[in-house]
Amino acid sequence: MRVFAPRGKMICLVATLLTALVVAGCDNNSSTSSASGPGPAGVATPLPCTPAATPTAQQTRYVSIDGSYCLNYPTGWDKNIPLAVFPPGGTIFTSLDKHNSFFIQPVSATLDNAKIVDLVKQYFTQTGISNITTVNDPTTVKIGAYTWTMDAGNTATQVNVLMKWTTYWLKTPDDFYIIIYALAPAASYAASDDAYFQPMLASIHISL
Fold first, then answer.
1. pTM surpassing 0.85?
2. Is 100 left (phi over 0), alpha (psi -120 to 50) or beta?
3. What pLDDT score was predicted for residue 114?
4. Which of 78, 101, 130, 181 has the smallest number of CB atoms closer than 10 Å to its CB?
């Protein structure tokens, strides 16, 4: 079982989607990311990981730095490793126009599923994001090989642009959580979801 450094404030995880608190360890040009030896302190050496779906001509295969998950993402998108203040293993994928973000993060913490969205909302408030609304009515949805808990229909205002974000999470057999945030302008969210977010979700393979 891999060991991740627990963090008391899961709400921090959304910061990189909405601010510039990204970028230590950017790797925007290589097609995959993996470690050849021991990873950061407390992180196990990566294991082979193959996405559940073969990349299309418009996708690139990605393996997380700790080997805990892999997926296919849109070729040309930036992929960034969050700053060290975040738990190891997270990755943020962002379209070049900065309109679409997909953040996947393993968390080794005991979380109440029903309160995850509330925690995110608290963080939005602290960072100055305004007009936050949340459905806070989680449902389950099967995408690819996994059944996720999903809370959709959430919005916030960022720089006078109405944004929509959807949260997905699941608990692995080893009691880790995999949490995903998909974010795009509300007016184009449905198109981004069809073109980018759903294919990324369907391609995920988790090794935890």
1. no
2. beta
3. 55
4. 130
**C-alpha–C-alpha distance, residues 206 and 208, integer Å:** 6
User: What number of CA atoms fall less than 13 Å from residue 121's CA on the CB side?
Assistant: 14
Quick one: how far is CA 56 from the chain centroid?
A: 21
* Total count of residues recorded for the chain: 208
Choose among 100, 52, 38: nearest CA to 74.
Answer: 100
Residues 6+ apart with CB under 8 A from 29: none
Strands 78-80 and 69-74: unpaired
Taking only the tens place, the pLDDT of each residue in 124-152 is 665 556 677 777 778 999 998 899 999 87
- 57, 93, 164 from 143: Cα distances, Å: 21, 19, 20
Confidence of residue 42 (pLDDT cuts 50, 70, 90): very low
Domains and CATH numbers, the chain: 10-206 (3.40.1000.10)
Residue with more model confidence, 106 or 116: 106
Q: What is the largest CA-CA distance in the chain?
A: 45
